[in-house]
C-alpha cells in the first residue's frame, strides 16, 4: 500500500475539487491545512510546493517514478489523480478530450468568473464603502456566471447524466463552483443543472470531500480583526519579488 498523499488544503471550492477526488478515488491522504486567511500560503515551505501562493496542492510521496512529486493547480491535480488511480479520467482519446474540454472550461471560465462574482457581490463592500462603485463589476460577473450556467444547462439537455458523459473529474471540478446564492443566480431557471447538482451532491464521496475542514473556515466578509486581516491578505496582493 502506498504512502498517503499530502493534501495542502483550505475549505474553498478549489480545495473541495481535490478532497472530493481523493474521496472518490479511495486514495489515502493526510490533511495539511493552509490557512489562507492567516497568510500561511506565503510560507517559504509552502511556496516551494505551490509557487503561485494558492492552495490546493499535493505531494504524492509515491510519484510516477517512485519518487515524491509536488503538484499545484487543481486541474493538474485532478488529472494527475485520475491517471494515478485509473478512475474518472478515461483513457480513450475521445472520452478523455470530452473530459478535458469541460475541465479547462471550469479552470479558465467558471472558476475565475464565479470568483469575481463572489468578490463583487459579497466581499468588496467590506473594502469599498461606496457600493455604487461596485455595480459595474457586480453586473458584469453576475451576467457572465449566468451565461456559464446556461452553457451547462444546454450541455445537459441531450439527456446525459454527467457533464462529459460518464461521471468524471470534470464533474468534480465544476460541482463545487455552482454556488447560486453567492453568485446571484436562481437554480429554478436551470432545472437540468439543478438536477445534476443533486445527482452529484448525493454521492457519499462528494459529501465527505465537501465537508472536509468546514469548521476551519471563517467568513471573509466578517466584521472582525481576523476578517479584515484575511481581506487585506487575499485582496491586496501585488508581486512579491
Ligand atoms: N487556479 C488555482 C486557483 C486556486 C485558488 O485561487 N486558491 C485560493 C483559494 S480558492 C487561494 O489559495 N488563495 C490564496 C491567496 O489568494 O493568497 C487552482 O485551481 O488551483
From TrEMBL:
It comes from the Bacteria. This is Glutathione S-transferase. The keyword Membrane does not apply. Keywords: Transferase. InterPro entries: Glutathione-S-Trfase_C-like (IPR010987), Glutathione-S-Trfase_C_sf (IPR036282), Glutathione_S-Trfase (IPR040079), Glutathione_S-Trfase_N (IPR004045), GST_C (IPR004046), Thioredoxin-like_sf (IPR036249). Residues 2-89 form the GST N-terminal domain. The keyword Lipoprotein does not apply. Residues 92-220 form the GST C-terminal domain. PANTHER family: DISULFIDE-BOND OXIDOREDUCTASE YFCG, GLUTATHIONE S-TRANSFERASE-RELATED. Transmembrane segments: none annotated. GO terms for molecular function: transferase activity. CDD domains: GST_N_Ure2p_like. It comes from Maricaulis salignorans.
Amino acid at each position: 500500500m502506498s504512502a498517503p498523499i499530502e493534501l495542502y488544503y483550505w475549505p474553498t471550492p478549489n480545495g473541495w475539487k481535490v478532497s472530493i477526488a481523493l474521496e472518490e478515488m479511495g486514495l489515502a491522504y493526510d490533511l495539511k491545512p493552509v490557512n489562507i486567511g492567516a497568510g500561511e500560503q506565503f510560507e517559504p515551505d509552502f511556496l516551494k510546493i505551490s509557487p503561485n501562493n494558492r492552495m490546493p496542492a499535493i505531494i504524492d510521496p509515491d510519484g510516477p517514478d517512485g519518487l515524491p512529486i509536488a503538484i499545484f493547480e487543481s486541474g493538474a491535480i485532478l488529472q494527475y489523480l485520475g491517471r494515478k488511480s485509473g478512475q474518472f479520467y478515461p483513457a480513450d482519446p475521445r472520452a478523455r478530450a470530452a473530459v478535458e474540454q469541460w475541465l479547462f472550461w471550469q479552470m479558465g471560465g467558471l472558476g475565475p468568473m464565479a470568483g469575481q462574482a463572489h468578490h463583487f457581490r459579497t466581499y468588496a463592500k467590506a473594502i469599498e464603502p461606496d457600493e455604487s462603485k461596485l455595480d459595474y463589476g457586480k453586473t458584469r460577473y453576475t451576467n457572465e456566471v449566468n451565461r456559464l450556467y446556461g452553457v451547462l444547462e444546454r450541455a445537459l439537455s441531450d439527456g446525459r447524466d454527467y457533464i462529459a458523459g460518464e461521471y468524471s473529474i470534470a464533474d468534480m471540478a465544476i460541482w463545487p463552483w455552482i454556488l447560486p446564492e453567492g453568485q446571484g443566480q436562481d437554480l429554478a431557471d436551470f432545472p437540468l443543472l439543478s438536477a445534476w447538482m443533486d445527482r452529484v451532491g448525493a454521492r457519499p464521496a462528494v459529501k465527505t470531500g465537501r465537508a472536509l475542514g468546514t469548521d476551519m473556515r471563517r467568513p471573509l466578509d466578517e466584521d472582525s480583526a481576523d476578517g479584515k486581516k484575511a481581506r487585506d491578505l487575499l485582496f491586496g496582493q501585488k508581486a512579491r519579488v
